[in-house]
Amino acid sequence: MKSLVTGATGFLGSAVMHSLLKAGHDVRLLVRANSDRRNIDKLPVEIAEGDLRDHQSLEAAVKGCDYLYHVAADYRLWVPDPQTMYAINVQGTKALIIAAANAGLKRIVYTSSVAALGLTSDGTPADETTPSSLEYINGHYKRSKYIAEQTVKELTDQHRLPLVIVNPSAPIGPRDIRPTPTGRIVLDVMHDKMPAYVNTGLNIAHVDDIAHGHLLACERGKTGERYILGGDNMTLLKILETLDDILGQRKRRAALPINLMLPIAWVMEKIALITHKEPRATIDSLRMAKKLMYFTSDKAIHDLGYQFRPARLALEDAVKWYRDNGYV
After folding, report:
1. Domain that holds residue 92
2. Is there a domain that residue 316 lies in?
3. Is the model's pLDDT at 255 over the cut of 80?
């Protein structure tokens, strides 16, 4: 069994790669020539150099593989040039799925995101059937993932592809080298840079549980279906308090109204255009925060046998990994 994984130099993709190796798969990785390869160094994997924007490299990468786990995405809450994000997340995904279809792969697992799903108006957990539409989605990342998922669904229906979609929530845990926006929350608390918070909520899951869910989706998922791979729903304040407890500290933080933060985020974005450094807060991320981003994984639990550990354990593993790898 040979599995191609995209995005393995990153956070979730590296976890999927480790799960596959543990399960005894031969693993090939699609890796950009200039990627940070710390997450894949010294591992028994085959490297296929390529890029989601280089469609010829995709045809070469899928050749001879049985399975595809397409995890790679441009995951940023702010980008100076949004077209790059759409080229990777939408056009790149389409080209890769077509290449996999032409190569006759046995199974394709596409990693979408809960960002492509709808949210409930009353804060109760959303599921795979909660309605969503492009006009109500804030931010280029969320919009690109929504469009990409719709594109993947159309390809699956048109070509009868053996494809399953998974929608991970916010992963937490080891190997978040960049780090991701959720990982930055952990680091900000560890560096005592979180004096305030906004009233929002996230679904937190251990990255390795989400990764194992990918393998379950490949093995047991129904073609054309999508499955939320998540964990515990927590307010941002609860996340911060849990991290404080893990770190053995007590902090008092101020609750800030989201509307008060919007002009500050606007200024941060203008500064980012000059410095080319991602701002700590963005207008789109604050607009997203106006709703509780809560989800349920009941469908994956029932249909796939998916399980997740308590969010606290995920946060503990993230704290330990950051400490062990010199981030603090």
Report:
1. 2-176+203-232+294-310
2. no
3. yes
pLDDT digits (tens, 9 = 90+) for 89-138: 999 999 999 999 999 999 999 999 999 999 998 889 999 999 988 888 88
Model confidence, pTM: 0.94
Residue 262, SS3? helix
Q: Please count the helices (runs of H) and the strands (runs of E) in the chain.
A: 12, 12
Q: What is the identity of the amino acid at 181?
A: P
* Contact by Cβ (8 Å): 39, 14: yes
Task: Please state whether beta strands 201-206 and 232-235 pair in parallel, antiparallel, or not at all (unpaired).
Answer: antiparallel
Residues 164/108, Cβ–Cβ less than 8 Å: yes
Mean pLDDT of 304-325: 98
**How far apart are the C-alpha atoms of 23 and 318, rounded to whole Å?**
23
Range list of H helices, the chain: 11-22, 55-62, 82-86, 93-103, 140-159, 181-190, 207-220, 236-247, 258-275, 283-288, 298-304, 311-324
Active site residue 146: no
Are 31 and 176 contacting, i.e. CB atoms less than 8 angstroms apart?
no
If one counts the domains in the chain, the total is: 1
Give pLDDT, residue 206. Answer: 98
For residue 224, being part of any structural domain is answered with yes
Rounded to whole angstroms, how far apart are CA atoms 42 and 300?
33
> Is 169 part of any domain?
yes
Check: CB of residue 160 under 8 Å from CB of residue 259: no
Q: What is the CATH number of the domain that holds 159?
A: 3.40.50.720
d(CA 139, CA 141): 6
> Which token pair is 102?
């032409």
Query: Are β-strands 67-70 and 254-255 bridged in parallel, bridged antiparallel, or unpaired?
Result: unpaired
Give the active site residue among 67, 141, 146, 322: 141
Residue 251 belongs to some domain of the structure: no
